[in-house]
Amino acid sequence: xxxxxxxxxxxxxxxxxxxxxxxxxxxxxxxxxxxxxxxxxxxxxxxxxxxxxxxxxxxxxxxxxxxxxxxxxxxxxxxxxxxxxxxxxxxxxxxxxxxxxxxxxxxxxxxxxxxxxxxxxxxxxxxxx
Length: 129
Hints:
transmembrane, plasmid, transmembrane helix
């Protein structure tokens, strides 16, 4: 007979192997209609919660993974907005000299604001890691 020690709460007996008791932590209950339950992004084959610090099965950092995904998407949106703002600003600033005098000043101001928006949005996108 082997000396055994079982640590932790809520462990479930799975079976015996050569007289040794094998225990595993219980599988967490996940409702099928729970919108927070997703497949593990690390391909461990289990479902887990997207906002869990770690996958209950493989222990990898699920929440950090999804936070990084959100930062990458935000950075991409900011970069696209910066490019569009800069291009529109450049076209308006450069083309304002060819417009009638009544609107050329407005086009120049809007163009400069677009270029400034390009700088601000690009800087904000660069700060995201």
